[in-house]
Design a protein that fits this description.
The chain is of the alpha/beta class. The protein is built from 7 helices and 6 strands.
Length: about 170
């Protein structure tokens, strides 16, 4: 009976330990991220945020790609971000763009003639979608990432995972 009890306790400990989905604080290299919208509150101290505008995004993709590691467009600007005039900018950036809290993922932002409100919710649990076009005129090569939040306290974990993604793309 003691062996069975010990075995059951061991299995329970393993199951509880394996169910821990917390992601540690991002501790990689310093990152500089351009933000359209409110600067997010994050727990990392090695992340610098810089306010940018859609006008800068549209007219300075080359310099932004050199100065920044990524761009985040916050929820309150998603309806403006879907404007066709920005599609070429998202596609020409050499750094990832993250559309925060887009339930429509990246689709309305990187395709002309597609409006945010016209697309059904592709992923209602989505907290962020990343997009990076590494294609050429001859070859399509798009990278996308999706990040879900299961609980409110996991938002900080999502940001940490996004930062790790940014570092891996720019390495």
């Amino acid at each position: 009976m003691k062996k069975i009890t010990s075995l059951l306790i061991g299995v329970l400990i393993c199951l509880v330990g394996c169910n821990n989905t917390a992601f540690g604080i991002y501790q990689g290299r310093d990152l500089k991220i351009g933000v359209i919208g409110a600067i997010p509150e994050v727990r990392e101290e090695n992340i610098a945020f810089q306010d940018i505008t859609f006008e800068e995004l549209k007219n300075n993709t080359e310099s932004l790609s050199k100065e920044l590691d990524a761009i985040m467009i916050m929820k309150e600007f998603l309806h403006e971000a879907d404007d066709d005039q920005y599609v070429a900018a998202y596609r020409s950036l050499k750094i990832p763009t993250f559309f925060m809290q887009s339930t429509k993922v990246h689709v309305p932002f990187v395709n002309e003639g597609v409006q945010y409100d016209d697309i059904i919710d592709v992923d209602p649990a989505n907290f962020a979608t990343g997009f990076l076009d590494l294609g050429t005129d001859e070859k399509i090569k798009e990278h996308t990432w999706r990040y879900k939040v299961e609980k409110k306290q996991n938002i900080q974990d999502v940001y940490s995972r996004i930062f790790a993604t940014i570092e891996s793309v720019s390495s």
